[in-house]
Amino acid sequence: AQSVTQPDIHITVSEGASLELRCNYSYGATPYLFWYVQSPGQGLQLLLKYFSGDTLVQGIKGFEAEFKRSQSSFNLRKPSVHWSDAAEYFCAVGARAAGNKLTFGGGTRVLVKP
Amino acid sequence: DVKVTQSSRYLVKRTGEKVFLECVQDMDHENMFWYRQDPGLGLRLIYFSYDVKMKEKGDIPEGYSVSREKKERFSLILESASTNQTSMYLCASSSLSGAHYEQYFGPGTRLTVT
Q1: What is the pLDDT of residues B16-73, one digit of tens each?
Q2: Chain A residue numbers touching B100 (CB-CB < 8 A)
Q3: Which residues of A touch B (CB under 8 A)?
Protein backbone atom coordinates (compact mmCIF):
# COMPACT_ATOMS: atom_id res chain seq x y z
CA ALA A 1 0.00 0.00 0.00
CA GLN A 2 1.16 3.51 -0.69
CA SER A 3 1.69 6.11 2.02
CA VAL A 4 2.71 9.76 2.30
CA THR A 5 4.50 11.53 5.13
CA GLN A 6 4.74 15.26 5.59
CA PRO A 7 7.13 15.61 8.54
CA ASP A 8 6.39 19.27 9.30
CA ILE A 9 2.97 20.03 10.77
CA HIS A 10 3.56 23.79 10.95
CA ILE A 11 6.08 26.08 9.29
CA THR A 12 6.43 29.80 9.90
CA VAL A 13 8.24 31.86 7.31
CA SER A 14 8.82 35.58 6.83
CA GLU A 15 7.34 37.27 3.80
CA GLY A 16 9.95 37.35 1.03
CA ALA A 17 11.86 34.38 2.42
CA SER A 18 12.14 31.03 0.68
CA LEU A 19 9.92 28.08 1.56
CA GLU A 20 10.47 24.35 1.32
CA LEU A 21 7.86 21.77 2.33
CA ARG A 22 8.89 18.16 2.67
CA CYS A 23 7.05 15.13 1.35
CA ASN A 24 8.15 11.50 1.51
CA TYR A 25 6.19 8.70 -0.09
CA SER A 26 6.22 4.96 0.02
CA TYR A 27 5.40 3.06 -3.14
CA GLY A 28 7.20 0.32 -5.05
CA ALA A 29 6.91 1.64 -8.59
CA THR A 30 6.93 5.11 -10.08
CA PRO A 31 4.11 7.04 -8.47
CA TYR A 32 2.01 9.92 -9.64
CA LEU A 33 2.70 12.81 -7.25
CA PHE A 34 0.67 15.90 -6.49
CA TRP A 35 0.79 19.00 -4.34
CA TYR A 36 -2.48 20.66 -3.39
CA VAL A 37 -3.06 23.89 -1.47
CA GLN A 38 -6.03 24.68 0.75
CA SER A 39 -6.66 28.30 1.68
CA PRO A 40 -8.73 28.93 4.81
CA GLY A 41 -12.32 27.80 4.35
CA GLN A 42 -11.70 26.55 0.83
CA GLY A 43 -11.41 23.25 -1.00
CA LEU A 44 -8.15 21.92 -2.39
CA GLN A 45 -6.49 23.44 -5.45
CA LEU A 46 -3.88 21.62 -7.48
CA LEU A 47 -0.48 23.35 -7.43
CA LEU A 48 1.49 20.90 -9.54
CA LYS A 49 1.88 17.26 -10.48
CA TYR A 50 4.53 14.78 -11.55
CA PHE A 51 3.93 11.76 -13.74
CA SER A 52 7.17 11.13 -15.60
CA GLY A 53 10.00 12.88 -17.41
CA ASP A 54 11.70 15.97 -16.05
CA THR A 55 12.00 15.58 -12.29
CA LEU A 56 11.70 19.33 -11.66
CA VAL A 57 8.09 20.36 -12.05
CA GLN A 58 6.76 23.90 -12.28
CA GLY A 59 3.36 24.77 -10.92
CA ILE A 60 1.07 27.70 -10.38
CA LYS A 61 1.70 30.64 -8.05
CA GLY A 62 5.49 30.37 -8.50
CA PHE A 63 5.82 26.93 -6.87
CA GLU A 64 8.05 24.11 -8.03
CA ALA A 65 8.74 20.59 -6.80
CA GLU A 66 11.50 18.08 -7.40
CA PHE A 67 11.00 14.33 -7.61
CA LYS A 68 13.94 12.39 -6.15
CA ARG A 69 13.46 8.68 -6.62
CA SER A 70 16.52 7.75 -4.52
CA GLN A 71 15.10 9.62 -1.53
CA SER A 72 11.41 8.84 -2.21
CA SER A 73 10.76 12.55 -1.90
CA PHE A 74 8.78 15.21 -3.68
CA ASN A 75 9.55 18.48 -1.89
CA LEU A 76 7.75 21.70 -2.71
CA ARG A 77 9.63 25.01 -2.96
CA LYS A 78 9.01 28.67 -3.52
CA PRO A 79 11.86 31.20 -3.75
CA SER A 80 9.99 34.15 -2.22
CA VAL A 81 6.84 33.76 -0.15
CA HIS A 82 3.92 36.19 -0.30
CA TRP A 83 1.43 36.74 2.53
CA SER A 84 -1.23 35.07 0.34
CA ASP A 85 0.73 31.80 0.50
CA ALA A 86 -0.45 31.26 4.06
CA ALA A 87 -2.46 28.05 3.73
CA GLU A 88 -2.32 24.32 4.29
CA TYR A 89 -0.42 22.21 1.80
CA PHE A 90 -1.03 18.57 1.04
CA CYS A 91 1.16 16.10 -0.79
CA ALA A 92 -0.58 13.15 -2.44
CA VAL A 93 0.46 9.99 -4.27
CA GLY A 94 -1.49 7.97 -6.79
CA ALA A 95 -0.65 4.82 -8.65
CA ARG A 96 -2.14 2.83 -11.47
CA ALA A 97 -2.13 -0.29 -9.34
CA ALA A 98 -4.28 1.49 -6.76
CA GLY A 99 -6.99 2.35 -9.21
CA ASN A 100 -8.05 5.96 -9.22
CA LYS A 101 -7.40 6.68 -5.57
CA LEU A 102 -4.99 9.19 -4.10
CA THR A 103 -3.33 8.87 -0.71
CA PHE A 104 -2.76 12.17 1.09
CA GLY A 105 -0.22 13.23 3.67
CA GLY A 106 -1.25 14.86 6.92
CA GLY A 107 -0.65 18.37 5.60
CA THR A 108 1.69 21.24 6.49
CA ARG A 109 0.23 24.53 7.66
CA VAL A 110 2.25 27.55 6.53
CA LEU A 111 2.13 30.82 8.46
CA VAL A 112 3.63 33.93 6.86
CA LYS A 113 5.05 36.68 9.09
CA PRO A 114 5.03 40.24 7.78
CA ASP B 1 -13.95 26.09 -15.84
CA VAL B 2 -14.35 22.81 -13.99
CA LYS B 3 -16.69 22.82 -11.06
CA VAL B 4 -17.51 20.63 -8.09
CA THR B 5 -20.21 21.97 -5.80
CA GLN B 6 -21.37 20.82 -2.40
CA SER B 7 -24.85 21.50 -1.11
CA SER B 8 -23.87 23.20 2.15
CA ARG B 9 -20.77 24.98 3.44
CA TYR B 10 -21.81 24.62 7.08
CA LEU B 11 -24.20 22.17 8.68
CA VAL B 12 -25.22 21.58 12.29
CA LYS B 13 -27.05 18.38 13.15
CA ARG B 14 -28.07 16.56 16.30
CA THR B 15 -26.83 13.16 17.39
CA GLY B 16 -28.92 10.39 15.82
CA GLU B 17 -30.15 12.45 12.87
CA LYS B 18 -29.84 11.16 9.33
CA VAL B 19 -27.61 13.51 7.35
CA PHE B 20 -27.26 13.89 3.61
CA LEU B 21 -24.29 15.63 2.00
CA GLU B 22 -24.67 16.28 -1.70
CA CYS B 23 -21.98 16.75 -4.32
CA VAL B 24 -22.43 17.69 -7.98
CA GLN B 25 -19.80 17.93 -10.72
CA ASP B 26 -20.25 19.38 -14.17
CA MET B 27 -17.23 17.79 -15.86
CA ASP B 28 -18.80 14.48 -16.90
CA HIS B 29 -16.25 12.69 -14.70
CA GLU B 30 -16.61 8.97 -14.10
CA ASN B 31 -14.99 8.94 -10.65
CA MET B 32 -16.25 10.67 -7.55
CA PHE B 33 -14.89 10.59 -4.01
CA TRP B 34 -15.84 11.53 -0.46
CA TYR B 35 -13.14 12.41 2.06
CA ARG B 36 -13.16 13.64 5.60
CA GLN B 37 -10.49 16.04 6.75
CA ASP B 38 -9.34 16.28 10.35
CA PRO B 39 -6.41 18.28 11.77
CA GLY B 40 -3.14 16.38 11.53
CA LEU B 41 -4.73 13.46 9.70
CA GLY B 42 -4.98 14.99 6.24
CA LEU B 43 -7.68 13.64 3.97
CA ARG B 44 -9.03 10.17 4.52
CA LEU B 45 -11.10 8.43 1.88
CA ILE B 46 -14.58 7.37 2.99
CA TYR B 47 -16.09 6.02 -0.23
CA PHE B 48 -15.59 6.38 -3.94
CA SER B 49 -17.57 5.61 -7.06
CA TYR B 50 -16.27 4.87 -10.54
CA ASP B 51 -19.64 4.69 -12.27
CA VAL B 52 -23.33 5.21 -11.70
CA LYS B 53 -24.65 2.87 -9.01
CA MET B 54 -21.12 1.58 -8.39
CA LYS B 55 -19.31 2.24 -5.12
CA GLU B 56 -16.32 1.01 -3.19
CA LYS B 57 -15.31 1.46 0.41
CA GLY B 58 -12.38 3.65 1.18
CA ASP B 59 -10.25 3.63 4.29
CA ILE B 60 -12.89 4.74 6.83
CA PRO B 61 -16.38 3.71 5.61
CA GLU B 62 -17.85 2.82 9.01
CA GLY B 63 -20.91 4.89 9.85
CA TYR B 64 -21.33 6.15 6.28
CA SER B 65 -23.07 5.09 3.10
CA VAL B 66 -23.22 6.62 -0.37
CA SER B 67 -25.52 6.87 -3.33
CA ARG B 68 -24.82 7.58 -6.96
CA GLU B 69 -27.97 7.48 -9.07
CA LYS B 70 -26.75 9.93 -11.70
CA LYS B 71 -23.27 10.43 -13.09
CA GLU B 72 -22.96 14.02 -11.92
CA ARG B 73 -24.20 13.52 -8.35
CA PHE B 74 -22.65 11.64 -5.42
CA SER B 75 -24.29 11.69 -2.00
CA LEU B 76 -22.78 10.87 1.36
CA ILE B 77 -25.19 9.63 4.01
CA LEU B 78 -24.69 9.50 7.74
CA GLU B 79 -27.40 7.06 8.84
CA SER B 80 -27.28 8.12 12.49
CA ALA B 81 -24.95 11.03 13.08
CA SER B 82 -22.59 10.87 16.03
CA THR B 83 -20.35 13.51 17.57
CA ASN B 84 -17.21 11.78 16.27
CA GLN B 85 -18.43 12.51 12.76
CA THR B 86 -17.96 16.23 13.33
CA SER B 87 -15.49 17.09 10.59
CA MET B 88 -14.86 18.78 7.25
CA TYR B 89 -16.17 16.70 4.35
CA LEU B 90 -14.68 17.13 0.89
CA CYS B 91 -16.00 15.81 -2.38
CA ALA B 92 -13.81 15.32 -5.44
CA SER B 93 -14.09 14.00 -8.96
CA SER B 94 -11.70 12.75 -11.62
CA SER B 95 -11.80 11.44 -15.14
CA LEU B 96 -10.84 7.91 -16.13
CA SER B 97 -9.21 9.25 -19.26
CA GLY B 98 -7.83 12.35 -17.59
CA ALA B 99 -4.42 13.31 -16.34
CA HIS B 100 -3.38 10.39 -14.19
CA TYR B 101 -6.10 10.60 -11.60
CA GLU B 102 -5.88 14.33 -10.95
CA GLN B 103 -8.80 15.11 -8.66
CA TYR B 104 -10.90 18.27 -8.56
CA PHE B 105 -12.32 19.30 -5.22
CA GLY B 106 -15.42 21.03 -3.97
CA PRO B 107 -15.27 23.76 -1.29
CA GLY B 108 -16.12 21.37 1.54
CA THR B 109 -18.92 21.03 4.09
CA ARG B 110 -18.10 21.64 7.72
CA LEU B 111 -20.41 19.38 9.69
CA THR B 112 -20.95 19.78 13.41
CA VAL B 113 -22.86 17.08 15.27
CA THR B 114 -24.08 18.13 18.71
Answers
A1: 999 999 999 998 998 999 999 998 888 999 999 988 988 999 999 999 999 999 999 9
A2: 32, 49, 51, 94
A3: 4, 6, 9, 32, 34, 36, 41-46, 49, 51, 90, 94, 99-102, 104-107
- Write the CB contacts of A34 (distance below 8 Å, at least 6 apart in sequence): A46, A47, A48, A49, A50, A91, A92, A93, A94, A102, B102
Q: Decide: B74 and B61 in contact? Cβ < 8 Å.
A: no
Q: In whole angstroms, what is the distance from residue B16 CA to residue B30 CA?
A: 32
Rounded to whole angstroms, the Cα distance separating A36 from A23 reads 12
B19 close to B77: Cβ distance less than 8 angstroms: yes
Best of A27, A102, A108 to disrupt the B interface by mutation (most B CBs within 10 Å)? Answer: A102
What is the signed CA dihedral for B73, B74, B80, B81, rounded to 10 degrees?
-100
Contact B43/A32, CB-based, under 8 Å? no
CA angle A98, A102, B45 (to 5 degrees): 100
Residue closest to B18 by CA, chosen among B71, B78, B63, B75: B78
Segments of chain A scoring below 50 in pLDDT:
none
Q: Which among A111, A21, A29, A101 has a CA at the least distance from the CA of A64?
A: A21
